[in-house]
Design goal:
Elements (H helix, E strand, L loop, with lengths): L7 E6 L10 H8 L3 E4 L5 H7 L5 E4 L12 H14 L2 E6 L9 H10 L3 E5 L4 H8 L13 E5 L8 H7 L5 E5 L5 H10 L7 E6 L7 E6 H7 L9 E5 L6 H4 L20 H8 L10
């Protein structure tokens, strides 16, 4: 996409955790970056190994329930400022850039400012977690499709939609929904789901701390399972979840501590924005 700004913004998917899952194009783009705006769920080894050693690295990640999460408007503003001062701006996002990554806000920001941009996909958390857990997301006689969802409030999914999902013709993949899992299971059973439908909770998928736990809808609800799942946790629901026991190739880790560093209260974004006020723009192309 051509624009009037001198800089170009690359929206890059970093994959779900394992740095070996980074694409070749993403690695080449990181090597030429002048500044990298990175999410929390990006393996630091990716930046250490593939990023231009002279690049400015800025953490702009979010974390549910953390006051240290960077407001979206600050990230948007920083993208504009960076594109005026650097030739190659990389917005590095965990997983794939098009799935639950707030990319629309950022695309609208750079598009409105006529900034050059490019979108480089990454391996999604759904495909990475499924592969590393030995769970095919679709399989003959198990699932005809996949639905990628998140659940944050009751009204987010209609009653008719719950009834449709409860038939489990498709695999259901829930992002960012570990704390709402009791509500999800209750809504599915209430909508008529077979109580014996299995599901897997995959903690910290594709990292050395990956841990997979299997349940059925009924067992989870009756047991009142109360353990907090290590973040990020991804839920795969449907008949395919039973295939984990047969095809799991990666043993569960005994270490369930956070693999990704929790957000800290830093002021580098504000300081960086302030420092740009009197700096000249880079030369126009």
């Amino acid at each position: 996409m051509k624009g009037e700004f001198a800089g170009k913004v690359f929206f890059v998917g970093a994959g779900p955790g394992d740095p070996g899952l980074l694409t070749i194009k993403a690695a080449k783009t990181l090597a030429t970056a002048d500044i990298i705006l990175t999410d929390r769920l990006v393996n630091q080894d990716i930046i250490n190994e593939y990023a231009n050693p002279k690049a400015v690295i800025v953490a702009v990640g979010k974390q549910g329930g953390s006051m240290a999460s960077k407001p979206q408007y600050e990230t948007n503003t920083l993208l504009l400022k960076a594109a005026k001062r650097y030739n190659n701006v990389v917005r590095l996002k965990g997983g794939d850039v098009s799935i639950f990554s707030n990319i629309l806000d950022e695309l609208e920001t750079v598009k409105a400012a006529n900034i050059y941009y490019e979108i480089i996909p990454g391996i999604s958390a759904a495909s990475g977690a499924a592969a590393y857990a030995g769970i095919p997301l679709t399989a003959r006689e198990h699932s005809t499709g996949v639905r990628i969802l998140t659940y944050y409030q009751t009204a987010a999914i209609s009653n008719e939609a719950w009834k449709d999902m409860a038939r489990f013709e498709d695999t259901l993949v829930f992002y960012m929904s570990g704390t709402a899992l009791h509500n999800i299971v209750y809504k599915l059973i209430e909508a008529g789901a077979d109580a014996n439908i299995p599901f897997a909770v995959i903690e910290q998928a594709t990292t050395p701390h990956q841990y997979v736990k299997l349940f059925t809808l009924e067992d989870f609800l009756i047991s009142n399972y109360s353990t907090t799942f290590a973040s990020p946790a991804l839920v795969i629901m449907g008949k395919v979840a039973n295939l984990h026991s047969q095809f799991a190739w990666l043993p569960n880790s005994a270490n369930r501590t956070p693999y990704f560093t929790p957000l800290q209260n830093h002021t580098e974004v504000t300081a960086l924005l302030n420092s740009y006020q009197n700096q000249p723009d880079v030369s126009r192309r």
